[in-house]
Write a structure and sequence with these properties.
The structure holds two protein chains of two kinds. Chain A is built from 29 helices and three strands. Chain A is mainly alpha-helical. A two-stranded antiparallel ribbon of chain A has the order 2-3. The longest helix of chain A has 21 residues, at about 500-520. The chains are: A mainly alpha, B alpha+beta.
């Protein structure tokens, strides 16, 4: 034990438990220690502690760092954004209006600016949990951001797939999470290599691992994954079979989709015009459906659920029809019959299986985007006069189809609702959250006018109003910010929650206007 | 010019920021107006009568008829925010009577204060003042004797014993020091208490504290034999305060001062704002303290990264020391400040200053060209000859430092506490970035 440790030990135990004298310090301290000689033991100990404390502080030397010098970040051709713009970024990262982050990042990217260095760590940290902002963030963190991300394993998402180091040995030795991370990573850069790894050990994997791994194939899915997924259809575990079937349904050229299409015996029956003199009534065009007698093994293998969920009121066969229709790209039907989607929907509605056909087409359109079908189905939805059917299709996600229309078409479609009957008009609010952001000035103006009119004329809030206002705050043209702020909003007292939404609309719109102005937009 | 972030800095707490923002919309307000000096408006609250809110922007000073005890209240913040965001809503007009009345009262009060000063001095009785000083001296001397006795008990029973003491043990000792009118000693007792109750390696740190405190008490006993500057430092550590009015009559130091940092510490209900300033010509460091009790706002005029031309009056004592701003002539942008060329040079200076004032705790230091390094999960600053010091900062701050450097040398300003450097600001690629930190 050296003199300093001895002194410390003495201080910890106290003078009453030990009688030894103060330890002998190095020569440089000896003279100062000598002056403590005349004091009582406690004072001498306290004095020595004080002297040594100052002695050590004053004599402290810096460490010698002999590790290699760090790499230097290459220069960046893009300039950093203005201090004003970075203040907005800092406020959003600090928790103010978090939904505006994508808009700000997109705006920075569009003017070719990058985020200031001191905000890069905060943005990289956000990207860890929010995968939705990764692509945009990657564009505005610049060289500095990539350089930094390479030094923190948690920020690997910011590195291009080929730059990220991956160690395939993990596949043999790693935990499930590590292996899953490797798989997901490989799917970005070399999807076939990921499948090869998976196939190499597939037989020996536990059921839980197979369930976890098959889901990772969704990233970078293509027809070359089909052979593997087709084998997975024969897996012992149901979750694996279902997952594989769901993925194959997403590949338009897969033989599973082909088998489904072959099972569908649909025939176009052209209608006939009525003949008044012969008292013959007109028959509309319709679709004739022939369905299998039972749900055979091959149908089960392709992921068809034989029994509908109870309480849906759907018959067994209608349920099979819906499921068979759902994987088939909807474009196949206009190709086969040379009819527009609108006419096909009309014909589908004319026959016995209308509900199953429309449900199947909605699911198929959600899986395989097709703007013409999306438009046709949305038109049908708004003209349907059964409330129950409207709600059923709304729950099935029919409004997601709005995102398949180009912006102007989608806005026109939703704007058109305001010129319809009272019941259909109220669908306007339900549609708004599905319209994306960056609304045109004319559409934004229409929304604000509609808002004024509904608050002025109605006592009860239509369904989805507060959610619509919340989304509008992120999507309307910020040109309108001052107009909205200056409006004298008269909100009926029964509309619970609406005053707060309007306040939020005003505050967010102003924030966005100032933020974009700062970026010169 | 009052910008949103400057206004928000006036808020007493986070919930005020939130409610202020929510109220900063036109529809909540009526009768908005402004002059060069003031802004005002009426805000509909929960009662029947709207609240009347007014701001004297020259200070700023606030007044509102709402019952809130927060200061400024959410209405005042909201009004201020609204005026920054939507200046067009505020028509330039003659203030209504309630605003005029308030402004008039403020003018009268200000005039009274300037008149009052000399009269107060004239009435003070020098003999009575001397008696008060003598009474305090004897209280402090008694307190010091008591604390010495306590320290000797600690040494006798051993520091390890401190952790077995009942709850409130240190508080009682600290309270005795407050009674003895030695608040500085009370603070040091509480610091030892905090060390003892912290987890981890507290032994060495607590023994250093106890030892240095003992040396301080010894030094007070022979104050007369010490040089005057050190005497002032010791008295200030015990808890004697300087009369600011008297201090402001001393000669000042004129310089261009770069504002290097801003930090707010909170103790009970007292908030202390610490600004470090560095003089361009004199090279002197100055610590400007601002206190606010409860919900009162802090002075927000010292913005890090800017420079002021000002005359500062330093408190007596060895450098670096606390100072007051006597007169501010102008402000401007900061340029690259000069600092220590090596880590070794900074540490040598610290050693020299310790030799003059062994109770020095924090030294403001600007290291001129250092690179942040992360080694085995620990952060360091490394200079051009590969000497390094440990950083004391959150991981988040350290990653920011690394981001700012990009692996290239930069200037880092911070407080050296004897074994680590706490970074407060960085000069990198032509601009100064500072780290705001609120300690509570």
């Amino acid at each position: 034990m050296n003199w300093h440790d001895q002194l410390l030990k003495m201080a910890l135990l106290g003078t009453e438990r030990q009688s030894s004298p103060l330890p002998t310090p190095p020569k440089t301290l000896a003279e100062s220690f000598a002056r403590l000689a005349g004091l009582d033991r406690e004072s001498a100990l306290l004095g020595a502690l004080g002297l040594v404390a100052v002695y050590r502080l004053a004599g402290r030397l810096p460490d010698q760092d002999s590790t290699p010098r760090p790499t230097v970040c290459p220069a960046d051709e893009h300039p950093v954004c203005s201090p004003g713009a970075s203040m907005f970024l800092s406020r959003i990262l600090g928790g103010e209006h978090p939904p505006l982050l994508p808009e700000l990042l997109g705006a920075l990217d569009s003017v070719g600016k990058r985020v200031p260095e001191e905000l890069i760590p905060g943005l990289l940290e956000q990207g860890r949990s929010q995968s939705g902002i990764r692509t945009l963030s990657g564009k505005v963190i610049g060289e500095r951001g990539k350089w930094l991300a390479a030094q923190n394993p948690g920020w690997g998402w910011a590195l291009a797939a080929k730059e990220g180091a991956h160690n395939e040995a993990v596949w043999e030795t790693g935990s499930r999470e590590e292996r899953l991370a490797l798989l997901s990573h490989l799917r970005l850069s070399s999807p076939s290599r990921a499948v090869a790894l998976l196939e190499s050990t597939w037989k020996d994997e536990t059921a839980e691992d197979r369930v976890a791994f098959v889901g990772a194939i969704e990233t970078g899915l293509s027809s070359s994954d089909e052979p593997f997924l087709e084998t997975a259809l024969d897996d012992r575990r149901k979750e694996v079979r279902t997952a594989a079937a769901q993925l194959l349904m997403k590949i338009p050229s897969s033989s599973l989709v082909g088998r489904m299409e072959a099972r569908l015996k649909l025939t176009w029956i052209e209608g006939t015009p009525g003949k008044i003199l012969q008292l013959k009534r007109a028959t509309p065009s319709h679709i004739d459906v022939a369905l299998p007698g039972d749900c055979d093994k091959s149908m089960l293998r392709d992921g068809i659920e034989p029994k509908p969920r109870s309480g849906t009121g759907i018959g067994e066969k209608a349920w099979w029809l819906e499921q068979m229709l759902a994987p088939v790209p909807p474009a196949r039907w206009p190709d086969r019959w040379s009819k527009t989607p609108a006419r096909i929907v009309e014909a589908g509605l004319a026959g016995e299986w209308s509900r199953a056909l429309v449900n199947g087409w909605v699911k198929a359109s959600l899986r395989h985007p097709d703007p013409a079908w999306a438009k046709a189905l949305l038109e049908y939805w708004t003209s349907e006069d059964s409330d129950q059917r409207r709600i059923e299709l709304y729950s099935a996600g029919i409004l997601e189809l709005l995102s398949q229309l180009d912006k102007a078409t989608a806005e026109d479609f939703v704007a058109g609702l305001t010129r319809r009957d009272r019941l259909t008009r109220s669908l306007f609010w339900l549609c708004l959250p599905y319209l994306g952001t960056g609304w045109s000035l004319s559409f934004s103006t229409l929304v604000v006018d509609q808002l004024r009119s509904i608050l002025g004329s109605s006592t009860d809030a239509p369904p989805g109003l507060t959610e619509a206002i919340r989304h509008a705050s992120l999507a309307i043209d910020p040109e309108l910010a001052s107009d909205i702020a200056a409006t004298d909003w008269q909100i009926p007292s029964q509309m619970w929650g609406v005053p707060a939404s309007i306040n939020n609309l005003i505050v967010v719109a102003q924030f966005r206007r100032d933020m974009l102005k700062e970026l010169g937009l | 010019m009052w910008t949103v972030d400057r206004i928000l800095a006036l808020a007493p707490d986070a919930s005020s920021v939130k409610s202020g923002r929510e109220l900063a919309i036109a529809r909540k307000w009526s009768g908005l107006g402004q002059t060069k000096r003031a802004i005002w408006g009426e805000c509909q609250g929960s009662g029947t009568k709207p609240y009347q809110t007014e701001i004297d922007t020259s200070e700023p000073a606030f007044r509102c008829t709402c019952p809130s005890r927060k200061f400024p209240c959410k209405h005042a913040l909201a009004l201020f925010l609204l005026s920054a965001a939507e200046p067009n809503l505020f028509s330039v007009s003659v203030p209504p009577p309630w605003v005029q009345e308030w402004l008039k009262k403020r003018d009268e009060k200000a005039a009274e204060q300037t008149r009052e000063k000399p009269s107060r001095e004239a009435t003070s009785d020098p003999e009575a003042a001397a008696r008060r000083v003598a009474a305090r001296e004897s209280k402090v001397t008694a307190g010091i004797a008591e604390l010495e006795g306590w320290l000797r008990d600690v040494a006798r029973q051993g520091l390890a014993n401190l952790q077995q003491q009942p709850f409130g043990y240190f508080d009682r000792v600290a309270a005795r020091m407050v009674d003895a009118q030695a608040p500085g000693l009370a603070r040091q007792v509480r610091q030892i208490s905090a060390l003892v109750s912290s987890s981890g390696e507290w032994h060495a740190a607590a023994s250093e504290r106890v030892g240095r405190l003992f040396l301080l008490l010894q030094a007070y006993g022979r104050l007369d034999s010490l040089p005057p500057e050190l005497r002032a430092d010791i008295r200030s550590l015990i808890g004697w305060t300087e009369k600011q009015e008297e201090l402001l009559e001393q000669p000042g130091v004129q310089d261009d001062w770069d504002i290097m940092s801003l930090r707010v510490e909170e103790d009970e209900r007292l908030r202390t704002q610490r600004n470090w300033l560095l003089g361009r010509q004199t090279g002197r460091a100055a610590l400007i303290l601002n206190f606010a009790y409860g919900n009162a706002p802090l002075d927000v005029s010292l913005v890090p990264g800017t420079r002021i031309q000002a005359e500062l009056v330093f408190f007596p004592g060895l450098s670096p020391s606390r100072a007051l701003i006597r007169q501010k002539q102008g402000t401007g942008p900061m340029t690259m400040p000069a600092g220590f060329q090596s880590v070794t040079a900074a540490l040598e200076t610290y050693g020299l200053l310790l030799a003059q004032n062994p109770w020095l705790v924090r030294l403001p230091v600007l290291l001129s060209s250092v690179v942040p390094i992360r080694r085995e999960e620990r952060w360091h600053l490394r200079d051009g000859v590969d000497k390094s010091v440990r950083l004391s900062a959150s991981d988040e701050t350290c990653w920011r430092l690394l981001a700012l450097s990009g692996g290239r040398p930069m200037s880092v300003f911070g407080e050296w506490t004897g074994d680590r450097l706490e970074p407060l600001g960085v000069w990198a690629e032509g601009r100064y970035v500072w780290f705001y930190r609120s300690l509570s």
